[in-house]
TrEMBL record:
Name of the molecule in the record: SDR family oxidoreductase
Similarity section: Belongs to the short-chain dehydrogenases/reductases (SDR) family.
Enzyme class name: oxidoreductase
MF terms in GO: oxidoreductase activity
UniProt-listed InterPro entries: NAD(P)-bd_dom_sf, Sc_DH/Rdtase_CS, SDR_fam
PANTHER family per record: DEHYDROGENASE/REDUCTASE SDR FAMILY MEMBER 11, DEHYDROGENASE_REDUCTASE SDR FAMILY MEMBER 11
Length: 243
């Protein structure tokens, strides 16, 4: 294990897409990592130095805290938490399975709150720390077939800003990153084939979508600002994405 001098970064949903890109980006910047997701093999396959990969469901508060305690014993206190884990289950509310709403609310909202709860008290006590919550353009405006998903992402925007105001005096930063269309596995979670086909057509009309690495670069930029500078929100999307 190499000598670690930079602070620990915790990333949820780190097994693929934006989370995996975040892991590579922050690792390249020299940070030790705690990678959390259900698929531990995929995280281990990234083969990043000074990293610990643990299979965790973000709806399990105790499991998150246990994993963080284990990582802090090895790498020191958490400097940055990136709440990235999420699911996107699109559908018309009158026909969509309500279980899909519960799953999104539990992962996209409760998962974010669980992560914050696990690190915030210590950050306030140390008078330093950064929490980056990955939301969506769908947390700023609505889209067809997105009602429940938009509800979860509007919640992420609201809770992030609310907590930011509460802990600003403690020199703790909260940052919202709201990507538009990104090339990830999110759409695969949707069960309606017609909606998935329409989404693919929309991506083609735009001439493609942004890469997860673009989102990771935005997060790293915000994190690398001095602690007395809080980039409160970053919205990024394909140039040709209109809404």
């Amino acid at each position: 294990m190499n000598q670690v001098t930079k602070s620990l970064v915790v990333i949820t949903g780190a097994s693929s897409g934006i989370g995996a890109a975040m892991a590579k980006s922050f690792s390249a910047a020299g940070h030790p990592l705690l990678l959390l997701a259900r698929r531990v093999e995929a995280m281990q396959a990234l083969e990043l130095p000074n990293s610990l990969s643990i299979s965790v469901d973000v709806t399990d508060t105790a499991a998150i805290k246990t994993a963080i305690t284990q990582a802090e014993a090895q790498f020191g206190p958490v400097g940055c938490l990136i709440n990235n884990a999420g699911v996107m289950l699109l559908g018309q509310i009158d026909v969509q399975d309500p279980n899909e709403w519960s799953r999104m609310l539990n992962i996209n909202v409760m998962g974010v709150l669980n992560g914050i709860h696990a690190v915030l008290a210590d950050m306030k006590a140390r008078k330093t720390g950064t929490i980056i919550n990955i939301s969506s353009v769908a947390g700023r405006k609505t889209f067809p077939n997105h009602a429940a998903y938009c509800a979860t992402k509007f919640a992420v925007h609201a809770l992030t800003e609310n907590i930011r105001e509460e802990v600003a005096i403690d020199d703790v930063r909260l940052i919202t990153i709201a990507p538009g269309a990104v090339e990830t596995e999110l759409l695969s979670h949707t069960t309606c084939d017609d909606i998935k086909a329409g989404y693919h057509d929309w991506k083609e009309e735009m001439g493609g979508v942004i890469a997860p690495e673009n989102v990771a670069a935005a997060a790293l930029f915000a994190w690398q600002q001095p602690q007395n500078v809080c980039v409160r929100e970053i919205v990024l999307a394909p140039t040709r994405q209109q809404p």
